[in-house]
Amino acid sequence: MKIKVSRWVLMVLFLASLGRLAQAQGQGGYQVGDVVSNFRLKNTDGSMVSLSDFTSSKGAIVVFTSNHCPFAKAYEDRIIALNNKFAGQGYPVIAINPSDPGTHQDDTFEKMKERSAAKHYGYPYLVDDMQQVARKFGAGRTPQVFVLQKNGAQFAVRYMGMIDDNPQDAAGVTKLYVDEAVTNLVGGKPVVTTITKPVGCAIKWKNQ
């Protein structure tokens, strides 16, 4: 009886430790309304890009994405369309790849450069090789979006979650979460749906 109790206690402690680990790795980041810290990451063109570089913008659509993930691939054209629609209205896309190339070879910096060139991205595609920016945001999946609104020199989170409600079929989308959020912000209106649960590939965190 004592052995069974001991094993049960050990199991509870083990599960609790897993929960704390999951929270530390990509969870518990920014919430809606939080001010985002500046970041500086390498772009596929070799330049360094910071959030503070977007001084003339009204905000930004920050997308954590990757090369290997089927969900990210399914959303790629929709991400490009979001930038084409909203960059000129002050809300450009900033794509960030936090995926570990040691786990997924398609996410090496060279592969990122190839993908950006092949698809003619009109926005920066940044490598978060230390995964610090993804952790700061609390990103857990690719793709996952954070719509930021600029207020003075600061950027605050106004929406976080999915791009829309149909990862598999763009023609079957009924809720354009990011589009609606940015459209409201551009029109001076509050965002109605501020949080959705992202659907995509889990970010594999590097061992530290």
From TrEMBL:
Q: Which InterPro entries match?
A: AhpC/TSA (IPR000866), PRX-like1 (IPR047262), Thioredoxin-like_sf (IPR036249), Thioredoxin_domain (IPR013766)
List the protein's name.
Peroxiredoxin
Q: What domain of life is recorded for the organism?
A: Bacteria
Domain annotation Thioredoxin: ranges: 30-183
State the taxonomy lineage: Bacteria, Pseudomonadati, Bacteroidota, Cytophagia, Cytophagales
Q: Which residues form the signal peptide?
A: 1-24
Q: Which Gene3D superfamilies match?
A: Glutaredoxin
Q: Which Pfam families match?
A: AhpC-TSA (PF00578)
Tell me which UniProt keywords the record has, alphabetically: Signal
